[in-house]
Write a structure and sequence with these properties.
It is a single chain. This protein has 61 residues and is mainly β. It has one helix and three strands. The two termini are 25 Å apart.
Length: 61
């Protein structure tokens, strides 16, 4: 994953974004650099998935 290492306050870091099924099993994973905003990954994670509900961290709001 190109660009999955980024600079943040603490130095170089990576963020892991995961979409799971109802049992908590991962169905999609995306890696971004630590400086990237979480909201940039919500559409790629949910694209094509059928869901009645979405539970997400405040960063995806």
């Amino acid at each position: 994953m190109a660009g999955a290492l980024g600079r943040s306050k603490g130095g170089l870091s990576t963020k892991v974004h995961v979409a799971t099924d109802a049992l908590g099993l991962p169905v999609r994973i995306a890696l971004t650099g630590g400086e990237r905003n979480d909201i940039t990954q919500i559409e790629p994670l949910l694209d094509g998935l059928k869901a009645r509900f979405v539970l997400a961290d405040k960063g995806y709001d």
